[in-house]
Write the structure tokens for this entry.
Amino acid sequence: MNATLADLLESARVVALPMHTRFRGVDTREALLFEGPEGWAEFSPFVEYADAEAATWLAAAIDFAWRPQPSPLRDSVRVNATIPAVAADRVPEVLARFAGCRTAKVKVAEPGQTLADDVVRVRAVREAMGPEGRIRVDANGAWNVDEAEHAVHALNEYDLEYIEQPCATVPELAELRQRVKYLGIPVAADESIRKSADPLAVARAGAADLLIVKAQPLGGVTHSLQLIAAAGLPAVVSSALDTAIGLSQGAALAAALPQLDHDCGLGTASLFLDDVADRRPQNGVISAERATPDPAALQRLAADDDRRDWWLARLERSYRELSERGAAAV
């Protein structure tokens, strides 16, 4: 079946989800949702992304709404807590929203903050979670190699599970990985995969020990599974700050992975004050079942007319981009 633009517009709903704490520069997360034969899907590239990049997110959404997904190998997925770049005294409050999570991903290298701020935040997470807790940090590519090496040494005493995208480029990741290998702290790649024209370059360069994969930016569940298989590295499925609908696509990806050794970054519903459905972690897991939005929540969280029009125009532009690629039919 082909998904026409009219098909997408027919059920399109634009929502604006308020957040507990500013995260990734966002106070309110906007998303466009639509329904296809397989169920609801989400189109939510960040507002600063150009149409060419946004089109890949749309391809993922169309795939999720119009095509059967790969068969799941598990019915639930273990997830991590996500700690924004908050003051250390707010860490217990944030962790409390992630019921039963044994792993925490901590944002570091926030603009306007220092490594000292990162250290006290990670220390607070370690103190709150105890010695059995698993801690990973995410720098979003903000450090150069020397800064990253210094940060790894400063954070090493807190027993890091891995460090995510410490540097921006593949050569930098490869150099850092060699420098800190003796410490036994793995390097994970995120932006070097999802924002790259050549997502396998990381694996070829030996620049990462594992991949962070996100279903929307990589074009959907099937494309993500193919990428993971081609890279030959362990994968952690994560969220692009999705609504419950996008989280269910991420969960479908995680549920279909033949090997899933790490808790996934799909617990981010707990960062929202409200959502279109409930996908908050319970006992450290989320369901792998497809989410359906609550009609009352769609109405309650509806974006204003100006933002709705902005997203519908973006949907049309992204659809045209896919049509030009010959990829809009599903």
